[in-house]
Amino acid sequence: MRRRIWAAAALTVTGAIALAGCSGGSSEPVPTISNPVAGQVADGILKGHTVTYAGDGGTTQDAQMKAFFTPFADKTGVTFNQDSPQTLAKIKAQVESKNYQWDFISGVADTVARNCGTLFEKLDMSKIDTSKVADGLLGGTECGVPSIAYAIVQVYSTDDFGTNGPQSWADFFNVQKFPGTRAVYSGDGVIDSATVEAAAIAAGWDPSTDFTADWANKGLDEIEKIKNNIAFYSTGSQAQQMMESGEAKIGAIWNGRALAAEKNGKKLTPVWNDWISIVDQFAIIKGTPNAEIAYYAINYAMGAEQQAKWTELSGYSPVNKDAQPKIDELTQKYITTTKERAATSVPVALDFWKDAAAVSTLQDRWSSIVAGG
Amino acid sequence: MANAPDTVQFSALSTEAIRTGGTGRRRRSAGGTRTLMLVLLPAFVVLAVFYFYPMLTVLIAAFNDPQLGWQNFQWFFGQQVNLDVLGRTLLISFWVTVICVILAFPFSYFLTVVTPSTRSFLMLIVLIPFWTSTVVRTFAWVILLQDSGPIGAFMKLFGVDSLGIIRTPTAVLIGMAQVLLPFVVLPMYATMSKIDTRLLTAARSLGARPSKAFVSVYLPLSLPGVASGALLCFVMALGFYITPAMLGSSRDAFLSTLIQGQVQGLAQWGHGSVIGFVLLVVTLVILGVAGYVGKKTGGSVQDMVGGSKA
Hints:
The complex is a heterodimer.
Chain A: H1 2-22, E1 50-54, H2 58-76, E2 79-83, H3 88-97, E3 104-108, H4 109-114, E4 145-157, H5 158-161, H6 169-172, E5 182-185, H7 193-202, H8 213-225, E6 230-233, H9 236-244, E7 250-254, H10 255-263, E8 268-284, H11 291-301, H12 304-314, H13 329-333, H14 339-343, E9 345-347, H15 350-353, H16 356-371
Parallel strand pairs in A: 1-2, 1-3, 5-6, 5-7, 8-9
Antiparallel strand pairs in A: 3-8, 4-7, 4-8
Helix pairs in contact in A: 2-12, 7-8, 8-16, 9-10
Chain B: H1 4-20, H2 24-27, H3 30-64, H4 71-78, H5 80-113, H6 116-131, H7 134-145, H8 150-156, H9 169-192, H10 198-205, H11 210-238, H12 242-247, H13 255-265, H14 269-296, H15 300-304
Helix pairs in contact in B: 1-9, 1-11, 3-14, 4-14, 5-9, 5-11, 6-9, 7-9, 9-11, 10-11, 13-14
């Protein structure tokens, strides 16, 4: 009896090893990319290969799959796997153990920038066509190209303020002039760069100058001053629910959530003066053997047609300036990647936020404001 | 909720130990023990590989991530917010436990005196939420408790303008108590169902008033179940994440939220590990104190924390 069990166990192990050996995939090398055009890829070029993408899950990732990666897999013949949610902890574990479950991800730009070269590959920009990327979205890190463009924008309840609502971030932090609870992102435990920059603008930071730790602290002062008038949200649905239910009269929230609240019948007025432009990035995990395939996938996702479909499905703004999505007026109201919007936007200052040491001290202050007694 | 079945077995075992005075172990033969060990081996291997080893690596990271030293502990105790959140975690967990015990005691007693069919129905009321995902239940509470929710709408009839419960500690207490209630009811009922009610009749026949009979006969006999349920509830409450995060404001966050921020967002495993380490030590100290108190007060409570009187 015992011998039979051992035999079965040995067989299982051998089988597993054999399978692991096979899963290396096609022995054909991946053709090297040259002269990429955004959204274009040769038919069947990746047949027999496999690539895995990790995003943030939910409807956003569904839209990414439908607009980018399922058509990409159909066209190239690649086996495209997806996973979610991507987290820095898991990426770190994969890079350290060199045991790759994921090849590329979409993540917040400051996280990508902070771990550029250590957890993420410095991108070879000759393999991705970025010539059509909308104004103001490129740059900041060598490790990412825009995957999702969105905003932290001030919105207020039209029913409560009419046309006399707050007009600037200074107004947002002025609870005497504009009384009422504010919805502010808690970062879900992590300091939120966009929110701190908005607060720094209220404290007097001129966005055309460099963002510094000093300004970050002045921004945190602003948040701390009105913290009894702030309801912190930790998820997008919470932000939306706070605005819809009237719990918060003013919010510094994501444009997509403002749009969703309006679609549910809540009247909101966005204040585009100094809105904070946030870019999530596609990034390739450091050392993955499938990097070249990831380049193909990312370059494909940047195409005008793909981006138009993405906007139609998700309501997020297209990152390709030639994209012409068919969307309703309300969705158009919250599109951020237009010339007009770009003129009043403030980018997340990646040069500052990628400095892990500076962020670490600010993080402790942030935690004590957001979670402290 | 993977540990749900353990709860029942756990308390049933401890009740068994009380009733037999811990003699069960002595009755077992040496050969029986060996078989028992063999049967336990697969479970032990699974625990060792998938539970103890990963947990150990996390605990070690508190001391050596990013480098060997006390820096993570210095960080933890140097940040007032960490201590505030630790205090809050303990305090809210304590009150959740108190609420659960107060609600579960009469309910469990009631379960022991009703007809079997009523009991099955009442058990179902306890078990259906128990089988439902915590996230789903927490979402349900968000909908119920938000100002524009059904409770808020009902209170408007009485002139209460805004309910104002969501994103307060009250909401966290309500949500957590509801989630944890089955963990208190089940061990309590397991103990109470084995109490010989003729003892109460005997006390009455000896002239004790009903209240006196209850306090000096029933209550002490039911205490092991109460202690078991309360400890289980408290220890589980300490590790809660989603319920405080969704029902409370960010200022009602538990330690787990801080761990999430440090590990998921910042990849600061050392910081995350040290928070986990402190939480574990606090939990073990509480279990230790409960065990010590149990020994001092007659040993019955000690069974609840895994010890044996034998």
